[in-house]
Design brief:
Strand order of the largest sheet: 3-4-2-1-7-9-10-8
Shape: globular
Number of strands: 16
Mean pLDDT: 95
Structural class: alpha/beta
Bound molecules: adenosine-5'-diphosphate, aspartic acid, magnesium ion
Length: 437
């Protein structure tokens, strides 16, 4: 069985939804994961924000505008009156639900319930469309099988057991349609896998059902060798191994959710990145195989803060690094990059929720300085120490860019640079010009 995930733009209009239906309906049994239609989750975030601010009329205005968009999609999507009426009824119910929040207290629980509606609507509409086409399809409710634990990590045993139950309850169906992104948490409340999390849903399902392949269908023909939003003339990378893909996703290649490669890697399930707008394009195949001895791609991760801790006697003071890391651990703040010298250590974080507390504690260990608005530029490829010359090529490409930190050797797959956010575009361009032209 294959798992196919279609992102927001891939289901972003009636015409796109029709294309997706045509693409999946080849008679082979599959699980289809859908995101919300593009723009919907952002609108839901805005609606929740109005509710937080007790601005009910603002929320209503936004809800009405979004509903109008869906009414138009329904008018265009369905040809048969019965299915059109069913879809209108479905939309009406979801939007009425969104309006009920005006009367109640608004907390993070209500916010998460609101954010879940986009995927519920898109999958509901898609299923009705497949029914109109006479296809064999069923909705698998993600809220019945997708769950995260106390640490917000996927509960893989629960997911496998419960998706199997859902599949068993619907034998002989050809197309199983399910929601990306949404889940329940440890307490049974509606939650989600973070923005862009539908990719993660697909790989978690792929791992749970031991799929033959996970396909991520989006609006571009695979992982490009640099960020196409900032650099012109980028090209798709035909093959990546799991490690390379995971590094690129984690370090900002938006085409993949940061953690979605891990479940596929652990179960050795190939992941194919494909373009809904050009279904024949080869895209990118992520598997154990890769291009040996070559630099594959560059990505950038925004919103980074660098912290430097200088201690008079770091080298002699064993236990210094442990103390530093324990402070970050106690505030559940992951560290991305680390560089050390005899007198100090520099680390980067992207979660600044507890920055002040962390800094107060670090100051007990030495002199602390902070630089915000930084970006990690990550170069990924087969960078084993034996492949002499690659590092110098990469470093040389950055010769005009002021670099705050360099990290190499943490894996055989990446070299990372920390630069100012204002130098990001220039750095990405310089790397493309020297590495890929
Ligand atoms: P979806 O809605 O299908 O999940 P996303 O917007 O999340 O799609 O991801 C696709 C987008 O990722 C592309 O349109 C592209 O602008 C962006 N992107 C950033 N870096 C890369 C990259 N290295 N290769 C391909 N796309 C990238
Ligand atoms: N709809 C969610 C979002 O916009 C999840 C996703 O698209 O992957 O973040
Ligand atoms: Mg995405």
């Amino acid at each position: 069985m294959k798992v196919l995930k279609f992102g927001g733009t891939s289901v972003g209009s009636a015409a796109r939804i029709k294309d997706v239906a045509q693409l999946i309906c080849d008679g082979d049994q599959k699980i289809v994961v859908l995101s919300a239609m593009s723009g919907t989750t952002n609108s839901l975030v805005e609606i929740a924000d109005y509710y937080y601010k007790n601005n009910t009329s603002g929320a209503m205005e936004r809800i009405n505008a979004l509903e109008q968009k869906y009414v138009e999609v329904v008018e265009e999507l369905y040809a048969v009156e019965m299915y059109k009426a069913e879809a209108h009824k479905l939309i009406k119910e979801y939007f009425e639900y969104l309006r009920t929040f005006s009367k109640s207290v608004f907390t993070i629980f209500e916010e998460k319930a609101i954010l879940a509606q986009g995927e519920l609507i898109s999958t509901g509409m898609f299923h009705i469309y497949l029914q109109e086409k006479g296809e064999s399809s069923v909705l698998l409710p993600a809220l019945e099988y997708m769950r995260i634990d106390k640490n917000s990590e996927p509960d893989t045993a629960y997911i496998a057991e419960n998706i199997a139950k859902q599949l068993e309850a619907n034998p002989g169906i050809t197309y199983y349609i399910t929601q990306g992104y949404i889940c329940r948490n440890f307490y049974g409340e509606i939650d989600n896998l973070q923005r862009g999390g539908s990719d993660y849903t697909a790989s978690l399902i792929g791992a749970a059902v031991k799929a033959d392949e996970i396909q991520i269908w989006t609006d571009i023909d695979g992982m490009h060798n640099n960020d196409p939003r900032f650099v012109e003339g980028t090209k798709p990378v035909p093959y990546l191994n799991f490690e390379e893909a995971a590094e690129l996703a984690y370090f900002g290649a938006k085409i993949l959710h940061p953690t979605c490669i891990l479940p596929a890697k652990l179960n050795n399930i190939p992941v194919r990145l494909l373009n809904t707008m050009a279904p024949k394009a080869a895209g990118t195949l992520i598997s154990l195989k890769s291009n040996k001895e070559s630099i594959q791609a560059v990505a950038a991760k925004d919103g980074i803060t660098a912290i430097k801790i200088k201690s008079g006697r770091m080298l002699l003071a064993y236990g210094f690094l442990r103390k530093v890391f324990e402070i970050f651990e106690s505030y559940q703040t992951p560290i991305d990059m680390v560089t050390t010298s005899e007198v100090g250590v520099s680390v980067t974080i992207d979660n600044t929720k507890h920055l002040n507390e962390i800094l107060d504690n670090l100051k007990k260990l030495g002199t602390v300085s902070v630089d915000s608005d930084q970006v990690i530029i990550c170069v990924v490829g087969d960078l084993q120490p034996d492949n002499v010359g690659f590092q110098s090529k990469v470093v040389n490409a950055m010769k005009e860019i002021p670099v705050r930190m360099i990290s190499y050797g943490g894996s055989n797959y990446n070299v990372s640079f920390l630069v100012k956010a204002s130098d990001k575009k220039a750095a990405l361009k310089a790397l493309s010009a020297s590495l890929f032209s």
